[in-house]
UniProtKB/TrEMBL annotation, chains A, B:
DNA-binding region residue numbers: 29-48
Keywords, alphabetical: DNA-binding, Transcription, Transcription regulation
Biological source species: Marinomonas vulgaris
The keyword Transcription regulation belongs to this UniProt entry's keyword annotation: yes
Protein name: TetR/AcrR family transcriptional regulator
Length: 195, 195
DNA sequence: ACTTTAAATGAACGATCGTTCAAGCTATAT
DNA sequence: ATATAGCTTGAACGATCGTTCATTTAAAGT
């Protein structure tokens, strides 16, 4: 004796993610959100609690999508290093034209929020850390296959890679003229500290 | 027959910059600003026009302060490469504890704002470009002194350096444990594409 | 068919947003 | 001393913010 919610939770969160990704936490109002996900305030609050609840769900969805993307690329039968490079190109190059913002949503969130929203900040940090851990696993494999230098540890290289991705994606938004991003990424993997 | 404004414009903008730097454009309200700069709304609007006007003045002040800092370091008699390294350490390491945010205010602004605030975005982009140009001038000198590889052009290296600084400063905020930032910067200048 | 129960709705709340402006105040010129 | 010019003040504006909840709707159980 009940009634099931009719909205598609996955699609709703995907739409919310796109809006938050584009406009940021403070730049997005609940009314913006209502339009983007086609839900009325009562339903949103019943499902997510409040504005922070929707944002938290979006951060987790975004991170999960990134890891799913990495797994999908891994399934293509590429070498660990090639898979990693393909993922970076996807994250950096494709998001220039196909994404709400060229900047990584997690990096944007960490840059935007203060201790005033500690929980959201923590979720974003942990999400970024879990992606970085996936990088480290791939790098470890690449090192075992002698495809990447072992001068630095896999976790150090994963950290280095996060820094490069964050820098590239943010810089891409600062530049009006198009950048040779794919070439810059090839260059990246061909030199220190990867080779 | 008149009356001079009694506030110190420079100090007011410095305080506004610190607040905007910490909380971002959308995270800062005019009432936050009124408290931080100790001015009443009428005086603020007379001096700056509106909220965007204060933000624009802050962006320009921030960029000017960065270039002044670089010039100050250059006056210390260091080599061009040493000066550049000292500046990067100042920007990356010192801002971890002595600044409103570890993240560069210009990068934060570019990540936060959309085309909805085109003018502010343009100001931030141009400011970052002018800092990058100062890098290029120093790098050119370092290349002439054979202190930096000439494999890549000075402007390419300046771009590369901006990407590293943006990446490092953002990553620093994502990390709860302290990072060996100074060492990472030394490492940066000792390898490709600088050497 | 009827009852039950939970989901969906959207008007409305108090708070806060960016901004305005009439009134007050004070330094300067006469 | 007085008049004048213009900076300073802060109450108040309409708009929008995040959020609530009484009401309506409709699917599931009998």
């Amino acid at each position: 004796m009940s009634k099931k919610p009719k909205f598609e939770r996955e699609q709703v969160i995907a739409n919310a993610t796109n809006l938050y990704w584009e406009k940021g936490y403070h730049g997005t109002s609940m009314r913006n959100l209502q339009d983007a996900i086609d839900m009325r305030p009562g339903s949103i609050y019943a499902e997510f609690g409040n504005k922070d609840g929707v944002f938290k769900a979006s951060l987790e969805f975004y991170a999960q999508a990134a890891i799913a993307q990495l797994n999908k690329i891994k399934a293509d039968g590429l070498s660990p290093l090639e898979a990693l490079k393909a993922f970076v190109k996807h994250a950096v190059v494709d998001s220039q034209h196909n994404a709400p913002s060229s900047v990584c949503m997690l990096a944007k969130t960490i840059a935007e929020l203060t201790e005033e929203h500690e929980e959201l900040l923590t979720v974003a940090k942990q999400a970024l850390k879990s992606v970085e851990h996936q990088f480290a696993l791939l790098i470890e494999q690449a090192q075992e296959a002698q495809a990447v230098s072992s001068q630095k540890s896999a976790s150090e290289l994963a950290r280095f890679l996060q820094i490069q991705i964050t820098g590239l994606r943010t810089y891409a938004k600062t530049s009006d003229e198009p950048l040779p991003l794919a070439q810059m990424i090839d260059d990246l993997f061909e030199h220190y500290p990867f080779q």
